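Usage example:
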Amino acid sequence: MKILVAVLLFLSLIGCLACEQEVDSVLIPYERKLVLECYLNPNDQVIQVTLRSNQPMLGTDSGAFIRNAVVQLSNGQRTVTLPPRADVYRITTRQMPLVAGATYTLTASAPDFPRLEASCTLPAAANGFSWRDEGLSYIQRPLTVTVYRSYTLLWNGAVAVEPQYFAIGRQWAFSDSTAVSGRDTVINGLETRWDYFKTGEELRLNSPTVRAYLGRVSSRDSVLRSPRSTDLLILQCDRNAYEFLKASALQLQNGNNPFAEPTLIPSSVKNGLGVFGAIYLRRRTIP
Amino acid sequence: MQLRFTLILLFFFGIAQAQSSRVTLSGYVREQGSGELLPGVSIRVTERQAGTTTNAYGFYSLTLPASDSLHIIISSVGFETEARTLVFRKNTELNLTLRAENRQLQEVVVSAEQVIKESQTVQMSTVSVPIQQMKAVPALLGEKDMLKVLQLLPGVQKGSEGNSGLYIRGGGPDQNLIMLDDAPVYNSFHLFGFFSLFNGDALKSVELIKGGFPARYGGRLSSVIEMQMKEGHKEAFHGEGGIGLISSRLVLEGPIKKNQSSFIISGRRTYADLLLRPLLPRENQAGYYFYDLNAKVNYDFGRRDKLYLSGYFGQDRFSFASRIDANSQGGGLNWGNATASLRWNHLFSNQLFANTSLIYSYYQFQIDARSSQTFNQVTSQYVLQNASSIRDFSLKSSFDWSPSPRHAVKAGVVLTSHRFLPQTVTLESSIVSQNVARSQPLDSYEGGLYLEDTYHPITPLRINAGVRLSSFTTDGRTYVRPEPRLAVAYTFPHDWAVKASYATMNQYIHLLSNSGVGLPTDLWVPTTRNIAPQQSRQVALGLVKDYRSFSITLEGFYKKMDGILSYREGSSFLVSTGLESLTEADRQPRSWEEQITAGQGWSYGTEFLLQKKTGRLTGWVGYTLSWIQNQFDELNSGQKFWARYDRRHDVSLVGIYRLNSRVTFSGTWVYGTGQALSLPQSTFEIRGPIQSGNVSLFPAQIFDYNQRNSFRAAPYHRLDLSVQLRKQKRRHERTWEFSLYNTYSRRNPFFYYIDDSESTATQPKRILKQVSLFPIIPSVSYGFKF
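Running the assembly step on the lines above writes:
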């Protein structure tokens, strides 16, 4: 990567008179839209909807929550209006029970925005997941050794008719004792890997092995980092949430890499942006 | 029954009689003095409105009814027209020489055909560019660039600023078959695309075909660019050279055995690295240079056999190195081509000419990084190499047969063995004992078998019909595809002609590129079991009108492309998420096959070309109106989108004014609609589905692109001017050239980005910025010939 950056710099140096200037003669088209974010999770007690406005790329506008919208959720038989609570619109699952196989439609109207509409069919929760302990692995550097324990995700459920969309991830918190600050720092992190499968064999071929961080040992100042907790996560999604979140994670990962293709964020929301999807979250805490 | 039998006998007897009364005129056409064989020379028989042109090896053959007196006219651009009268009662060998009109350009024409007018050829969508003309057109930093001259023609579009890439009728740069003495050249750029690697001093001819492809050409979808190197002066030793701001060049040529064997050798090297080296601190060095070497020898065994051996070798080298105390790091990019062709011409008879070529072509790109660090007396070493290459061996045989005035038949076979090494990453490290990825070489075999006939059933009607059978064997699978070709031209009185053509083309090798600026990191990959060949079907319809001093060509085309490749959204070159990634799969660089997706494309439009061929002021006006769209199931949510090189309008004006034999002015002006780019149109935040207490574990600032390539860059336009001052000295001729690139210093966009460096945690501030490369750039160069 360093070389590629050097190449880019060199390209700029070629025309040593090359210039950079602010542009106002070409316009970036902008259409004001509502951004919806809602994940139906049957294991949660609440259904929560976030509505924001998208912001033009240029200028100084910052994202704003939309608090004056009318947000309604329907399961085809009855419709419930979600009242605003702080930055979200929220109801409990008692008011709108979440049932696998049912299709839910969410609409939102707000002044100065086109009315948006999105639908989501709640998939059945996939069962039969397990993690197989693959033992310890190491990354050795001259001055440090980082220790991991690897786990492989297995699935022994029946062959699915529709693909099972999921992400696996690790979430951790660790203390970082550094000589500079002399204080512990707690860092929360999450990484995900996105995939889909219909059979356990397809899943196996995609090598869903996750490494749980156990610690790092330094010859300079003994233990540098030690984990407070590590959780292995399985996030099962419907296709809408899967495509939206996978693309978002990829866009985030590529950051400003000039050699990366742009990542477009798909959305199933009509007249708007964002996601209306379904998730099931399973968490296993590593001892 | 008996009557019918008699009539059939009479019919065949008649044909036999007619055949027996035909005789063949054949021979070679050379340049007077140098003995250089001349391709594309027009041989016209005035009495019979028949004619032909010399092939790539300067050979012609014309079979006609015997005659007591035959008047022929021999002509080619830049040469004095010759007229001969001869008794034509038996097969005649007539070797001809043409004298150059002047070493300087007398007339500038786009077509090499002077006597055969545009309205009198069957081939459409074809342009020959005389080398003299290329040298008269102004160029960036005075570096004459054949590919940039081709960019000035209608239907040929430019990439980004300064880029030599050719986007022809909706095709990408990989869809152009660029051949140097029959050898394919895979990377035709130096300096990240700013200069092409073809040294004009060593070239004899350049021809571009962008549609209506004859069956003898195949393997690419969008164009054929065929270049011939000079053979070398057969009578005397000569040289030519030049000194420019960034490079110098030298060509030497002469006889090995007078009139029988000759050589030419040429070299070019940039010297910016040598000039900058003393200015850089010793602990931080960086440099770049490129060089080219062309060489060719030939041996003439007599009328029947000729042998040519030619080669090209060129490299680009970029490097950097730094050293602080005991720690050092460095690296570089190296890439280059090597080609070699051994060609044997054999004349079986005065009607049947054959050429057999053995061809080698190799392109390699390598990137490496190394570091050495010492801490507490422990030294760690790290070397990373990433390389890709493609290597070809080919055998090619072609036959030209002229059995009658109404038929000119060509047939041939091409067999190529490809070896691809798309990407191999090698890591040698005392730091990390893992993460080494090597990809295996991929061997593939490509074949082509063709037959074509140019048929004149009646004088105003010309038909070129043919078929090519192409095949590709790879990865245990063989693809075989027929490719029908047809071109028809009908000439009306007063030099009007209507032309039409159809061509199916298949392409079995692909270039993966996500930089768009011609970086050598682009990968050549083969068709595989999972990746189908690219295919195009193109129809074109044209109208031609020749006037006394200029001609007008109007062509419409429609091209459908299938199986074109693109990187998937979010794919990137040379990036893995690192050693500490979540899973083993994330830690390895992803294979190229995982990162691409196939789709289809459409290209259609109109091209207009007005050429002024004679007089002091010559040149052309070209205009292209076109639309280029792509559709991939896995890109842009499956919807159609504009290709990056979609240009609605493209205009080129080229003018060359010869004041006298010593002073020539020239200028070009180009205009093009801005490129279609992907820039985010809006942004929003998401929390994500996973919360830990009140903290979101998936917060992200998301950029919404709306549609792929939905942003239009500012239009591109530029004016270049130059003046050439020639003077004949006692022992040599010298030329001073002064030129201005981008005369009115238009800030054309090279790329755009969103600058948010002034944003704060609570207040975003985003600004669209444009980076431009070249403002007005004056240059001067000195050339000499002896």
